[in-house]
């Protein structure tokens, strides 16, 4: 396992109807939902480390502190970048930025914990 500070990953999606506040039940407008943005951010963090994590291990999210500062309409592209900023034993910290074609839309400080999935599920 080589989880080193500085790893980063970027991915992009196009906002669709199923990503909207209406679809997520988090509002009544056809804009990128905060829950959809948070899930996209968390997925970007997962992908940031997946090739550097021992195949027998996994991670679980334990904290996410998110700001959603701008609405994004259906059809616009959203880019998300996660950067691994701290490795403290099994605890990983990410800084995540999201932007649409017009600029920043949100940011997160996200923490994940490295786990053995078999042992984790035995305790769940």
Automatic annotation (TrEMBL):
Q: Which GO terms describe its molecular function?
A: acyltransferase activity
Q: Does the keyword Acyltransferase apply?
A: yes
Q: Which residues form the active site?
A: 34, 42, 68
**This protein's record includes keyword Transferase:** yes
Q: Which domain of life is it from?
A: Bacteria
Start and end of every Fluoroacetyl-CoA-specific thioesterase-like domain?
15-116
Q: Which UniProt keywords apply?
A: Acyltransferase, Transferase
Query: Where does the chain bind CoA?
Result: 61
Q: Which Pfam families match?
A: FlK
**Where along this sequence does the record place binding of substrate?**
61, 112
Q: Which SUPFAM superfamilies does this chain map to?
A: Thioesterase/thiol ester dehydrase-isomerase
What is the name of this protein? Dihydrolipoamide acyltransferase
